[in-house]
Design brief:
The protein is α+β, with helices and mostly antiparallel strands. It has 4 domains: 38 residues, no CATH class; 44 residues; 173 residues, Nucleotidyltransferase, domain 5; 117 residues, no CATH class. Helix content is 33%, strand content 20%. A 5-stranded mixed beta sheet has the order 3-2-1-5-8, with helices on both faces. Strands 10-13-14-15 form a 4-stranded antiparallel beta sheet, with no helix packed on it. A 3-stranded mixed beta sheet has the order 11-12-16, with no helix packed on it. The protein is elongated. It starts with a helix and ends with a helix.
């Protein structure tokens, strides 16, 4: 008998006993033994409880509680960690234990857009918060790029999102994939978009030059709709819920090493939830569709420096270099091609290129084509004078002998006598 049936029999025996039935008559009527009938006339039957079975997860629950407090609820991550600690149970027990601590996933509100192999990649940054890296607390960022067809991901970590860092991450991704997609989708990040008008998008000159160099088209999300690049958004979420929940040594170099290992053994090796195929396997179809990167020299990535234009000149290494005369040219950017050569750019294009002048006597390097022709300026070449190039020549002066002045002095003396 289960607990419910047993309780029902008890109340029936109690009722018969109150009516004056004997124990033997009650036992025959209820088809129970005489001792049971006797016992139920005297006390309520207690519920029988089975002893609690021990779970293989029990020795690890303290560890799981600690990891949950740290924010780790990814069962794949925890299952790998528990196996290293000697856990021999199944993943199902772990999932049942972790389920109350996990948030329900949100619903997808934008239709998925599929592309052909090699057609598109999507790029995004993720903020990993302030973390201790190499003994210093720094804000850490993750650069994430995902091939839209295969979902093959690339991940690396930095401590800033500046232009030179961004371009290096892009080139590392091209090397990782072994090729370049036809187009790459970005949101409206400052390193990519300088200005967005109603009918025109102006890219930053640096990134426009980079895209032209590698031959890919730049696509941009609609403002306020980052979900239009949902594939890389999902990759960012995956990095947060999987890679960042694992334990890593507090070193940027080790984080990037761990990221490559994680990509090869987890992120790109396991089946994708949408395609049902591992990204590495599906990438085999995509590899041949990428633009080849072999034979392309690495793009020269340097730190871009701002320079204020003052009276038609900019200052570089304690010397003044002329720039083209334009009324609206108030600021330019320079980038070093090597230690001796630098380019000068405005917002859209390269203006000119200079080689650093090593003559210690020169403080001004001037090119006549940069300024309007003014009387007294050199016709061609660089000028090594410290003064401005538009100084007027002195007028011609008549040359006279000293006798002229002696005679003039005598005449003045005669005129002054009374």
């Amino acid at each position: 008998m289960n607990d419910e049936t047993r309780e029902e029999v008890f109340w029936m025996i109690q009722d018969l006993h109150k009516k004056g039935w004997s124990i033997t008559a009650i036992a025959e009527e209820m088809q129970v033994s005489w001792p049971t009938a006797k016992k139920y006339t005297e006390e309520i039957p207690k519920k029988q409880t089975r002893p609690t079975r021990k779970s293989k997860l029990d020795p690890h629950k303290d560890y799981l509680e600690q990891r949950i407090k740290e924010g780790t609820t990814n069962c794949e991550v925890l299952f790998d960690e528990l196996r290293e600690r000697g856990y021999t149970g199944k993943k199902t027990i772990l999932k049942d234990y972790i389920k109350p601590f996990r948030k329900e996933p949100g619903k997808q509100g934008i239709p998925r857009y599929e592309t052909e192999p090699g057609e598109q990649a999507q790029v995004d940054w993720m903020d990993c918060g302030i973390r201790e890296m190499d003994g210093v607390r720094k804000r850490t960022y993750g650069f994430v790029i995902t091939m839209s067809y295969s979902r093959k991901r690339y991940l690396c970590f930095t401590t800033d999102m500046k232009m030179d860092t961004f371009l290096r991450c892009m080139m590392q991704a091209f090397d990782y994939y072994g090729g370049i997609p036809q187009k790459i989708l970005f949101d409206n990040m400052k390193t990519v978009v300088q200005q967005r008008l109603k009918k025109e998008i102006i890219l930053t000159s640096e990134f426009n030059d980079f895209a032209f160099y590698y031959g890919f088209r730049v696509d941009l999300c609609q403002p306020g709709k980052p979900r239009t690049k949902g594939k890389v958004e999902n990759s960012v979420k995956y990095v947060r819920n999987n890679f960042l929940q694992r334990r890593h040594e507090p070193s940027l170099e080790i984080w990037n090493y761990d990221a490559l290992q994680w990509l090869s053994t987890v992120a790109n090796a396991n089946p994708n939830q949408t395609t049902g195929v591992a990204p590495d396997e599906r990438f085999q179809e995509e590899r041949g569709k990428l633009q080849p990167i072999t034979g392309i020299k690495p793009y020269i990535v340097t730190k871009w420096e701002k320079r204020i234009v003052h009276d038609g000149y900019i200052s570089v290494k304690s010397k003044r270099y002329s720039v083209p005369s334009r009324p609206l040219l108030k600021e330019v950017r320079i980038r070093w091609m090597d230690r001796e050569t630098f380019e000068i750019w405005d917002n859209e294009q390269k203006i000119t290129t200079y080689t650093v002048d090593t003559n210690p006597q020169k403080t001004v390097v001037y090119r006549s084509e940069h300024l309007p022709k003014i009387k007294g300026t050199p016709d061609e070449g660089d000028m090594g004078l410290a003064t401005a190039p538009h100084v007027q020549k002195a007028p011609n002066v008549e040359v006279r002998s000293l006798d002229y002045y002696e005679n003039l002095k005598e005449e003045e003396s005669t005129l002054c006598k009374p």
